[in-house]
Design goal:
- The protein is α/β, with parallel strands linked by helices and 819 residues long.
- It folds into three domains: 93 residues, no CATH class; 379 residues, Rossmann fold (3-Layer(aba) Sandwich), CATH 3.40.50; 270 residues, Glycogen Phosphorylase B (Rossmann fold).
- The protein has a nine-stranded mixed β-sheet. Strands 19-18-17-20-21-22 form a six-stranded parallel β-sheet, with helices on both faces.
- Helix 24 links the parallel strand 20 and strand 21.
- The longest helix has 29 residues.
- The protein is globular, with a radius of gyration of 27 Å.
- It starts with 11 loop residues before the first helix and ends in a 7-residue tail after the last helix.
- The structure holds 1-deoxy-1-acetylamino-beta-D-gluco-2-heptulopyranosonamide (CR6).
- 1-deoxy-1-acetylamino-beta-D-gluco-2-heptulopyranosonamide (CR6) binds next to helix 6.
- Allosteric enzyme that catalyzes the rate-limiting step in glycogen catabolism, the phosphorolytic cleavage of glycogen to produce glucose-1-phosphate, and plays a central role in maintaining cellular and organismal glucose homeostasis.
Length: 819
Amino acid sequence: MIKNGQTQQFDKAAFKAAVEKHLTTTYAYTTESATPHAWYLAMARALAEISTGNLLATEQKLAKEKARSVNYLSLEFLIGRLTGNNLISLGLYENVASAMEELGQNLTDLLEEERDPALGNGGLGRLAACFMDSLAAQEYPAVGYGLHYEYGLFRQSFEQGRQVETPDGWRGVEGYPWEVVRPELTQTVSLYGYVESYLDEDGNNYRRWVPGMTVDGIAWDLPIVGYDNNSVYPLRLWECRSPAPFNLARFNDGDYVGAQYPALEAGNVTKVLYPNDNHDQGKALRLMQQYFHCACSIADILRRHHAAGNEIEDLAKLETIQLNDTHPTIAIPELMRVLIDEYKMGWEAAWAICSQTFAYTNHTLLPEALETWSEALIQQMLPRHMEIIFEINHRFLKEVEAAWPGNNDVKRKLSIIQEGPQRMVRMANLCVVSTYAVNGVAALHSELVKRDLFPEFNELYPGRLTNVTNGVTPRRWIKYCNPGLSELISEKVGSDWPVHLEKIAGLAEFADDEAFQQRFMAVKKQNKQRLADWVKTNMDIDLDTNAIFDIQIKRLHEYKRQHLNLLHILALYHRLLNDPTFDMHPRVFFFGAKAAPGYALAKDIIFAINKVAEKVNNDPRLGGKLKVVFVPDYRVSLAEILFPAADVSEQISTAGKEASGTGNMKFAMNGALTIGTMDGANVEMREEVGDDNIFIFGLLVDEVQKLKQEGYDPYRYYNADSMLRAAMDLLDSDEFTPGQPGLLSAIRQNLLEGGDPYLVLADFADYVKTHEKIDAAYRDQKTWAHKAILNTALMSKFSSDRSIRDYANNIWNLKPVKC
Ligand code: CR6
């Protein structure tokens, strides 16, 4: 088997033969007729043979050793392209480049042929991908469980400035070369039906679920290749198929068939990823996705457990299950159901296992993102699970009664069931009650989880609520996406920094070394040129790399305040045209963001930025000082070009709203300076780099809360600040939509009459002032280089390797196993 240079030799001739074999036998091309896409597919297949072999070997070894594993359950894994990354992990990048060269192909071009597997919305899904990478790099035994969506996050294009969504068939017609189907792992999943009591042969009374229909779960494995080691872990994605025709016997009674079976085909269950970030939609099909995902995953965990020769009583000793947000919460009642109904365990024994197996990560405080499901819907789709949830709640409320005797308010507040005209199941409450650890994703966020979201739970279960600050993988987010910087780092601190990121601290001693500053800035310049070239080719906009590249890339959301950034741009535009004393260093403002298709204001903000861009980029009066670029279809592969090219990173959410952020970390690692609020992980980044090397502005969490309590009035700011007024009023004019005033008014309207829920106006003045400081700082290139180098040097805390070690040591009790 070919593996990274340490253990096995790369056999170039054999590899070339494998590529040619796939070209002809798998994809039906001759070497003469093959397109670049076919070459990429054949090459990736040849590489996947290597990783699949190692995946099976890793599986066997871990089973044999009875190693304790983590099962990472997530509805999203935003893995991005795998080929380049896996080449680096396998240590084969140069070898394969040279092999492909001999086949007349350029590796860099072939890598561009891969479509992004966009199986996630944003930070949460990308975090899951970084965590899988870090688990494998450090050899902490793990399986990732997700869904095999036929369509990932929609593709975005702009028509006359407005977002248009089209389906993302990420696998293409040929299929994705890195995945392998595992038919022997197929699971059957039940839905609907009813629950009945029965007596077994010994006269014991049991409950059982008589399902109304079943579907099949097919396993697809993607290889998560450990960096410079022999471990390959599966990312196991479940695809839903209908065994046709489904259980006809149960369909005889036409009455309840009509009542209980919505018009849906099983094949629809994993058809498409729900495109909402930080927003709960409550659609029945989504609940079905969640249950399908959990039922397949729990069954597979139990299968592995038994296949390794282990007893069910030892489940919590050998397996832990991390719930990535509340999306897979239904796994908790599912495991209870299996233990009680199938293994015939008593409630206490089943609960002892469950409550020691699951842990839960909370990723948001936003009320609109906290999942609740209608009791009636769960009752209909998963009747046995609803019974189990009632029983969990019943027992839990007894605990609450014991802790706060006679206090019905606290019971109402903590209950898993929310009373009201339509009773709802609060998934986060179910998680806190049923897990052994609950973590937030940054220090500030975790404090707010304890203080504002779950204060009583924190009293009731001391120590259960904790923090694990997010991180990102330095393999993809430095080594792979920024080869120039990587070489510089290796030269100064040695080449093992991708798995020992603490070593990059060694760069700090060169922060004042002029020669090093120049080389660091030269790399930045090259990366800016690479981005400028992309923009020229794809958008036909000319950019000057001497300008400050100021970038905000993340989902479009009011709390992330892309409209604050826009107001600043409008203020600059106004000043450049009206204030002869005003000068600024040329700046390019980049945006990349998808808006949830149903989120009207977010789409209006995209439209406004595009309209402003159109005007600003072609206005000779601005003398090229101001450019605005909204890159279409922001995705992982574009992020890989944007992060390395940034001078300035925009992290400007309203304090208390962004749980962590992870883009903030990727920018700083690549030497960008942050302009940010005291929110999420920005707070800890400031601690690491020091106040002089980050530009902090805006209200603090407590100031935000106080201002809201006192009654926030956006007009107060609007009336008092002429620059803000000018910027806002431009939105009401036809300056950017000639002959059609009012097309951009919705944003102004939301900020003034809509009460400005995210305090954009309150933070505007400080934001503008802080940007002026950035302008001044950039003019002194030596000082800027010094700050930029320190940002890279002082980011080691934010490696996802550290996050995973925190989980392993403080939550999972997990030890690495060398393969
Ligand atoms: N939207 C948070 O908003 C955090 C990621 C990963 C988010 C973001 O601040 O960095 O999770 N939350 O922890 C949810 O998705 C619910 C996100 O990506």
